[in-house]
């Protein structure tokens, strides 16, 4: 498949809002704050009220213990927080599968998958499907 | 000879591709505009913020610049009119040259220098950082979220600031006319209203809208077409700003021809 075809396919998947990517290749928007990065998805794609979105995001940030980062820009947060924000952004897509691509590239200090699984458990993802996508060389970490 | 023809052909092909790409981009923006996509609240926030950055933040500086620049220009025009004994054409000169031509031109040059370059580099850096790809991967259309709000905000900003410039210049004109020609406010306003037609006002606003459109859409397109290399960012800004300059000249010529044509009717 050519690069153009791959891009078109990825775009179509995105347009159908079925996959929320957490990937080192899909960055946060550098000119937006942590809150704006996460809230952009529901504010653009849904008719959910702003107050409800804010309450949900504040709750999720508190669960992951990064409430103090809510107003920070992406260059002001560390790589662990970047990963958490990317995860929350992906989870904002309703009725979707979350794909975590190469987590150990983003969480370089993590010894294994446990911290990420714990993170997902903390978020109480009811019926949410999360898929890990990684290279063979990280197999021992799962 | 063959090399020359090949180079010429290749240049023609790349230029036509670029022009057709630009036209497609403009049509996509226009389609989203007609569909009212900017009413999406995330895009609307960008629109409001962009008006704040483009027009409101510039306001103090712009008012001072308009007053200083407008007064100098009006002063020169009045002295010339007085020297050549063209007082009967004063109204036409103020409205035709200073207000209808000078105001949008100075406004658009200032906004192009300040905001078009910023928008071009912002979009180019977003492209290189793959932030635009990130938006698309979440089903967010960059035309709706990034480009359309900026185009609309530029159009609004150029229109408002050009009108403001025109008002300040007219006020300067009144002060200078009372000093140099000892003209009363009543005579000055009568002279101004006599020398302006509805067509002039329509043309003024069409011109500001077209200016606003071009000085935003060209940098946006060039930023969006940037390759995934940081070394391509300055090239993109350079191309964008050259395009903006060419478009300003082009619109200015077209508007002059249009005014000439309308006045001869």
Give a short synopsis of this structure.
With 142 residues, chain A is mainly alpha-helical.
What are the salient characteristics of this protein?
heterodimer, A: Rossmann fold, 3-stranded parallel beta sheet, 3 strands, 46% helix, B: 265 residues, mainly alpha, 0% strand
What would your notes on this structure say?
The complex is a heterodimer of chains A (142) and B (265). Chain A is mainly alpha-helical. Chain A has a single domain (18-135), classed as P-loop containing nucleotide triphosphate hydrolases (Rossmann fold, 3-Layer(aba) Sandwich), CATH 3.40.50. Chain A contains 6 helices and 3 strands. Chain A has helices spanning 3-15, 34-45, 50-63, 79-91, 103-106, 114-122; strands at 19-22, 97-101, 129-133. Chain A has a 3-stranded parallel sheet with strand order 1-2-3, covered by helices on one side. In chain A, helix 2 (34-45) crosses helix 3. The mean pLDDT of chain A is 82. Chain B is mostly helical and 265 residues long. Chain B has one domain. Chain B is 87% helix and 0% strand. Chain B contains 9 helices and no strands. In chain B, helix 2 packs parallel to helix 6 (142-180). The longest helix of chain B has 39 residues, at 90-128. The termini of chain B are far apart. The model of chain B has no long low-confidence stretch (mean pLDDT 90). At the A-B interface, helix 1, strand 1 and helix 2 of A face helix 2, helix 4 and helix 5 of B.
Could you give the topology of this structure?
The complex is a heterodimer of chains A (142) and B (265).
Chain A: H1 3-15, E1 19-22, H2 34-45, H3 50-63, H4 79-91, E2 97-101, H5 103-106, H6 114-122, E3 129-133
Parallel strand pairs in A: 1-2, 2-3
Helix pairs in contact in A: 2-3, 2-4
Chain B: H1 2-34, H2 41-56, H3 59-84, H4 90-128, H5 131-137, H6 142-180, H7 185-194, H8 198-224, H9 232-264
